[in-house]
Protein: Transcriptional regulatory protein LiaR
Organism: Actinomadura macrotermitis
Amino acid sequence: MSTVRVLLVDDQPLLRTGFRLILEAEPDIAVVGEAGDGATAVELTRSLLPDVVLMDIRMPGVDGIEATRRIIREEAASHDPRVLILTTFDLDEYVIEAVRAGASGFLLKDSPPEELITAIRIVAAGDAIVAPSVTRRLLDKFATRLPAVRDAAPPPGLATLTDREREVLSHVARGRSNAEIAAALVVSETTVKTHVGNVLAKLGLRDRVQAVVYAYETGLSRPGQT
């Protein structure tokens, strides 16, 4: 059994202690360090090489979004750490910026312990723990408040997709599962999975959640669109 190395990042010591007690009770999870701000989190990620960084968003100094951006940019080439965002609100506009910065998902701070443990294992395995439909709901609510999403020039790469891959991306952006996309396009789920993999590879995206954000950035999907 491989051990998942976790770095706890939160400006509240009591919360970090609570998270540590929960996680260290699991035989396959080890807490390798703690940080009370984003700058320290970046430094400890570099030195401790955690598999998962459990990251608070709102912290003094360097916040969780900027820390996530630095961690993904600086460490991806070495050991590819995953960032799991902690948020107080289920509709927090900062979450979208965190996902765009490279986070693999988010979790509410008041989630049950078993959900926290499961989320860490999922993220450590390379998957995202936020359903695309949830990301879509967040974008629909906050897209008009995010100039970076609304005004940014379309990222390069969309032209490299085939017509079918663009079609699959548009379905992913609507929060549809592989089974639902397969039914809509009258193809097999295996074919859809292949197309999704090609889309992520061509666009340099880590998971389906980032694909939803990308679709907004390119104008392929818009708030309220069905």
User: Anything to note?
Assistant: The chain has eleven helices and five strands. The mean pLDDT is 82. Residues 4-140 form a domain with the Rossmann fold fold (CATH 3.40.50.2300).
